[in-house]
Amino acid sequence: MPQKVAIYPGTFDPITLGHLSVIKRAKKIFDEVIVGVADSGSKKPMFDIETRVTMAKESLKEISGVKVFPFYSLLVNFCQEQKVNTIIRGLRAVSDFEYELQMGYANASIDKNIDTIYLMPSLEHAFISSTVVRDIVKHGGDASHLVPREILSFLEK
Question: Cβ neighbours of residue 18 under 8 Å, at least 6 residues apart?
């Protein structure tokens, strides 16, 4: 029987416990989840793509069936390269929905074989975003309760 595979894309700048929550939920549905770390140079990320990939790999090493790859193209092209037709997107609040819906439709307009599934993080992690973590870290605060312990050393730098 063929494996069910999905791609969970994002900037992951940095990866958070909210991201891990969505990945764990996706693993209940899919045999394999590919975490696609987007280059996202236009967003001016705090960490370079190599560091973001390393942080994601370290954070996810205990979860079987999860792979991490960088990508530098349109998400649809990355999906085609990986031969995957399902995208996972996380929704924290209604404010995420409009943007994510628009992106899902845009991806489907480029490749009609692409489906997007929206998953919520667990309630305890629903407020966490990479932006919140970056703001806390930039101002010298403690974000250790928001991120996987494996990346704390990266945040201290």
Answer: 90, 92, 121, 125, 126, 127, 128, 129, 146
Superfamily (CATH) of domain 5-156: HUPs (3.40.50.620)
Sequence spans of domains, the chain: 5-156
Which residues have a catalytic role annotated?
Answer: 19, 43, 92, 130
What are the φ and ψ backbone dihedral angles of 60, each rounded to 5 degrees? -110, 5
Q: Which residues lie closer than 8 Å to 38 by C-beta, 6 or more apart?
A: 9, 10, 11, 70, 71, 75
- The pTM is what? 0.94
**38 pairs with which residues across the strands?**
71
What CA–CA distances, in Å, run from 17 to 10, 109, 147, 153?
14, 31, 5, 16
Q: What is the residue-level pLDDT of the chain in tens, covering all 157 positions?
A: 678 999 999 999 999 999 999 999 999 999 999 999 999 877 789 999 999 999 999 999 999 999 999 999 999 999 999 999 999 999 988 778 889 999 999 999 999 999 999 999 998 998 899 999 999 999 999 999 999 999 999 998 7
